[in-house]
Amino acid sequence: MSTGFAGSRCQDERRRRRLAGEADDYDFDDESSSSRDDDGSRDVDSIGDEGEMPPGDVRVSHFPLGRLISPKLWKLWALGVLGLLVGGNLLLAGTTSTVGDTQFGPGFAHLFDLAAGRAVKPFATLLLLVSTQLAWFIWWVRSQSPRDFDGRFRQWGWCVAIGMGATLAIAADLHLAWAKTAMWLWEPEFWHAEVAVWLLPICLAAAWVLRTLHREMRDCRSSLSMLWMATACGVCIAVLQLNVVTISLPSDENRLMSWGLELSACWLLFMSLLLHARHVVHVTPDPAQIRPPMFRLTSMLRLPKMPKRKKQAKAATVADNPADESIAAVTAEEKTKKPAKRKQKPAPVKVAAEDVPTPPPVEEELPTTDEAVADEVFEEPPTEPETLSADDEENAEAPASIPTDVQSMKGLTKRERRRLRKQQKEAERAAKSQGRAA
Question: Is residue 130 within 8 Å of 271, Cβ to Cβ?
Fold first, then answer.
């Protein structure tokens, strides 16, 4: 017997999630709990933008890899500011590389020239590579969640694959190589074909990643805000690549703006994943609750359902024959009628001990044959005596035609005995009702 949770492909995984979901309390090691309380419990509880951790959630900071992510926010932001300073200095060095031949020498100009991007491109590649590693780490932590029955943690694996592809594309200019190959093979002729050939697949993959990460980061506002700022930078890069908006700037300033947007997008994505890694490690690894969308485009564009052919044919026949319409209405009313309630049997009437004559004592004999066992008298359990009024005692008379002693019933069959007892009870009930009416 196996419980088929969606996203749980292995029987052991289904059993683990079922047992973990049914458990109410989670016991951790004393060492891990004490270290967590000493290091970052106050900082985690003081988070204002992520909310308090609901009772019963599991934190995986007791794992060794959980120590890589600090629970203190200022440490993470210090790391982010350090990366931002490095990127800003690289851009600043690129702007001064044009005059670096006379001030810093030709080697400085060759290294930091923004046209070649020898220093800026490796830094952007490094940011994307670290972001991919953080996504991989989040995937591992999310896989430890006992409440992720839908298997939503597997979407992080696809995000890791897309991130690795983007890292290789920036490092080796694979997107440009693909564009030249596509232009050589098919020779497409449409608007900005050389750019659209590589930009369109990247935009589709980025849209899927944005949708996935937005659903996963709903409980962490800081990481979600960073994600949307990185998306805004990516949209600006796409607009500049397609020349949708023409900006009259010198070539050096235009190059500085494009590299600045690219580094900003990579840095914002890195900070978003870093803050979300802290959330899943020190707050909760459980998936965020899926909220219903405010505007459902599919429901607005959905066509009305067509009626079935049988119903259409039946409606057409009723319209042609108005006599059949009344018959159909009558049958519909009969179907909707509630079933009649069954009458309850009247409660058995208790007979007073004075009306029933006491039979003489009979010696009990053990039955020797099957016929003797069949003719054995089954006596009813003694009933409590019922006090009757004077009028009831006068009117309650048992009929003489019905034998009441055991000796007279001894030669009768079981069916005849039951019939006689039934007649006796009915006669007593009728006598009582007559007495009450009088």
Answer: no
